[in-house]
Amino acid sequence: MDEGPFNLIIVGGGTAGWMCAAACAAKLDPALYRVRLVESEEIGTVGVGEATLPQMKDFNDFLGLDEVEFMQATQASFKLGIEFVNWGRQGDRYVHPFGTFGRPIGEADFFSYWVRAHNAGQAAPLFDYCFPIVAALQNRFMLPNGDANDVRNAFAYAYHLDAFLYARYLRRWAEARGIERVEGRIVDVERDGQTGNIAAVTLASGTKVAGDMFVDCSGFRSLLMGQTLGVALEDWSRWLPCDSAQAVPSVRSPDFTPYTRSTRRPAGWQWRIPLQHRTGNGYVYSSADISDDEAAATLLANLDGEALAEPRVLRFKAGKREKAWAHNVVGMGLAGGFLEPLESTSIYLVQMAIMHMLTLLPPGPAIDPALPAEFNRVMDVEYDRIRDFLILHYIANDADAPLWERVTTMDVPDSLAGKIDRFRHRAHVQAYRDGLFGPPSWQAVFVGQGVVPEAADRLADMLPDDQLAERLAGLHATIARGAASAPLHADFVAHYCPAPAP
Ligand code: FAD
Fold first, then answer.
1. Per-residue DSSP letters for 217-228?
2. CB of 314 closer than 6 A to ligand 1?
3. What does the pLDDT read at residue 6?
4. For residue 219, which atom of ligand 1 is closest to its CA?
5. Domains of the chain and CATH, by start
6. By C-alpha distance, which of 311, 310, 305 is closest to 285?
7. Sheet harboring 198-203: ordered strands across?
């Protein structure tokens, strides 16, 4: 019997590959697991993926990264949420925050009290009762202060970062901790004749890299999962119709927002992501509704600074692989699936795949089927929940262009239809253990896009009107004061984590 370490081969060195390599370097005993990463400089990486979720901070903490060093290395800024412009109706604006609305008032949740007061015409807009939103819209940022009784602690934060620099940073970090990098283009994949498992990959140089298990991080090519094992992509484009994007950097704007902006357009939507050295921009669109040339012109006409390059076109199809773990291959990142970047969920999905893989990693080359079965179950939950949340943004809209006419009348997955009905009638949002998104996220998008419940949780009826009005007014003032006390985001970053000029 072979007593050597378990050979884990990561195929691909984009964000997914190097995140996985870094986690392996941090958490796997090198005496038991030998980890190598194969990547091809000639092929390169997708190079987008600049907006993240607060879970990325957990991932960095899990690795033990220093926040300031990480932010300087990736030209990062802070992100308190996403501003949605023209979603719902033209002229509307709302922020999906990384934080909660209000504070506990009585037996029901804050949102139910707000619905009751709102429907009686006695509440300010929901978004005024959320510290990270009020601070973000004034371009202010501070770290949570750790005081559970202070509204200035009721939020989490994420980062905007340069995707190239992040992969490069993690590469340095992982290589310094023993991950072996193999440069070369994979031209052939060898399978075991009996099990069908992947046995080795062969590079253009002729070098063969053999392994016990493989992580496919090869991007949209899906070299092992899709091309070699034939694991099909479950196509979700009937619900998420955008299939193209153009990305372009522009010079840093004075409007250094601690949030991502998503502006709805006739054939899709445009992102704006402020970094320390530049602003990232892109137009995500349905190619059935606009030509590439028109999309590029729209994107360039709507930048708030001079473009630093020509727009770059990317093509994709919404969906996920039917299995996230098949044979001895786990698919992560774009090789495993892609749901458009409207809620910045892809890097989060990589992170979840890494954590679940580490939990379920077999102790030796023999893989008990119970391990992939559980991995596939949890990854399905993750994907399904994000899919439903993304679709909600599409259907709760004015049908003011052909794309939007189609999506606002489409059939939605049953799982989403039930969520919408429960929200409309009783302000109910299920809080679940696994997967994104929590009740404040659903509440933000529903209300932000014009879906306000007919009635709230009956427990919220118990507080007398005058007491409810007083509590809401007090909270409104406290949040406004708290936000005004936070420094400007630009000043905070310049002081806390100034990145060197590129
Ligand atoms: P890639 O970066 O494509 O890396 C693939 C790797 O595989 C490369 O190293 C390549 O060299 C290697 N490779 C491929 N074939 C071979 C071969 N034959 N031999 C050797 N090596 C090979 N995510 C977010 O979280 N937030 C966002 O804001 C966001 N915005 C996005 C916007 C767009 C338009 C798109 C398309 C994606 C966005 N994403 C976003 C997703 C994010 O970019 C990816 O999830 C992330 O970058 C991971 O990519 P990857 O590592 O899977 O693939």
1. --GGG-IIIIII
2. yes
3. 95
4. 53
5. 6-50+162-235+318-367 (3.50.50.60)
6. 311
7. 186-191, 198-203, 208-210
Residue type, 111: F
Structure tokens at 383: 């994907």
Report d(CA 183, CA 394) in Å as an integer: 42
Q: Quick one: pLDDT at residue 33?
A: 95
What sign has the CA pseudo-torsion 332, 333, 338, 340?
positive
pLDDT of 104: 87
Q: In angstroms, what is the span from residue 374 Cα to ligand 1's centroid?
A: 25
What are the structure tokens assigned to 30, written together?
Answer: 């090198």
Report the nearest atom of ligand 1 relative to the CA of 220. 3
Q: Could you tell me the distance, in angstroms and rounded to a whole number, from the CA of residue 73 to the centre of ligand 1?
A: 19
- C-beta 268 within 6 A of ligand 1: no
Q: What is the pLDDT of residue 2?
A: 53
Query: Torsions phi, psi of 23, nearest 5?
Result: -65, -40
- Which tokens belong to 338? 């892609």
50: Cβ below 6 Å to ligand 1? Answer: yes
Distance CA 276, CA 73 (A): 11
Tokens of 489: 């985001």
Closest residue by Cα to residue 113 from 457, 499, 476: 457
Contact (Cβ atoms closer than 8 angstroms) between residue 45 and residue 14 = yes
Nearest to 478 by CA among 135, 158, 142: 135
Long-range CB pairs of 4-7 (<8 Å, 24+ gap) are 4/34, 5/30, 5/31, 5/32, 5/33, 5/34, 6/32, 6/33, 6/34, 6/212, 6/213, 6/362, 6/363, 6/364, 6/365, 7/34, 7/36, 7/210, 7/211, 7/212, 7/213
Closest listed residue to residue 269, CA positions, set 438, 388, 397: 397
Q: Tell me the one-letter amino acid at 142.
A: M
Q: Quick one: DSSP state of residue 155?
A: B
In whole angstroms, give the CA distance from residue 350 to residue 55: 11
Mutate to test the pocket of ligand 1, among 218, 299, 343, 386 (most ligand atoms within 8 A of CB): 218
pLDDT along the chain (502 residues), means of 10: 82 98 97 96 92 98 98 98 97 96 91 96 97 98 94 95 96 97 98 97 98 98 98 97 98 96 98 98 98 98 97 98 98 97 97 98 93 98 97 94 96 94 93 91 97 92 95 97 97 98 88
Active-site positions read 79
Model pTM score: 0.97
* Euclidean distance between CA atoms 161 and 299, whole angstroms: 20
Cβ(244) to ligand 1 under 6 A? no
β-sheet with 213-216: strand ranges across: 180-183, 33-39, 6-11, 213-216, 329-331, 325-326
| Calpha distance 475→398 (Å, rounded) | 32
Does the beta carbon of 88 sit less than 6 angstroms from any atom of ligand 1?
A: no
Q: Name residue 216's beta-bridge partners.
A: 11, 331
